């Protein structure tokens, strides 16, 4: 099986990059985990694209916009529910596997409590932003229930630390298949918008239940987990800055939809969200790659700094090599993609997509950089750069949306992403090394792209 995974990766990756990472001592395990994650994403993206486009066409831009407006508010409160513990819990599980029950137990109780607070805040925010819109407030209240089960992420963190993502894939996809059929039934029976909000929430609840059941069947009962105040304090000391950074990050990612909805109406959110659906497909890729490679790279830092720096550069090179051709392809075919998938009511999303897709270049290197900042204990810098970029994004949206609508929001995203994930690295001595590594990857990326293009001719 490991041989098959290696063959698959050898076909997907450029030869030079594959040759370098294949020398890694953990390559077989990493290859297996990446193969499972890629297979999972290919399946989900295929199924999700089919169902998501069908829902968008059925609901139309206005109701589809309201649905995405509700999700935007929920996502902005996710950091409060998660407490920024995800990557820190994974890191602690990698470094201290003998303390896993204490780490998991403490994180679970903390996130369950914060999930309740986040849901209350979500409902309140819906009332504040849409005081006279009962439908919008109801959609937000229903979708916000997913914040209550955010604590199930501790199971995902456990399997991520063990590089055993396939178990999470099996569980989640089983539920996704069932609920995809349910969404088709809702479309065929001409169900109202609220039915789609309910089915999305119930799907998340059943995924969470499935993850806990899977863990207990393989690793023992969660009753064995230990909750220690000292451990909780230790985790929150390291994560509190990440909570604020997470708020700034998700506000940064979703505020465009909220501002579009409040300034121009739900229809503009629907058209903008159609572009983001296609652009967002590519957003999953760096999280798959970095999620599989980061634990091994962090381990190498504890043994050999030169090896750590070398593997970090290889990762940046790989991410740019993937992001660049996909951005070119989507930008050139945006008209065809929007009209063939979403139809004429969403035609305005094409110009938005042509701009927004280029933000993936900076996102790809940024996802990897975030892991390296954590390994170097640079949480304060994560917070400061994210807050600054968030302020830039909000200011640009406030200025550009009234003039250019969704296109202005896409421009604001591109500029702020370039600062957040790249430009700010040049401003401090602690991150100048990452700036050089990203610059090298971004400059050599077009050369690798041209070489690959020549090989394909």
UniProtKB/TrEMBL annotation:
Domain of life: Bacteria
Regions that span the bilayer: 42-60, 66-90, 102-128, 134-155, 167-189, 195-215, 235-255, 275-294, 315-333, 353-375
Annotated localization: Membrane
GO cellular component: membrane
InterPro entries: Polysacc_synth (IPR002797), PolySynth_Transporter (IPR052556)
Its membrane topology: Multi-pass membrane protein
Protein name: Membrane-bound exporter protein
Keywords noted in UniProt: Membrane, Transmembrane, Transmembrane helix
The species this protein was found in: Candidatus Symbiobacter mobilis CR
Main location: membrane
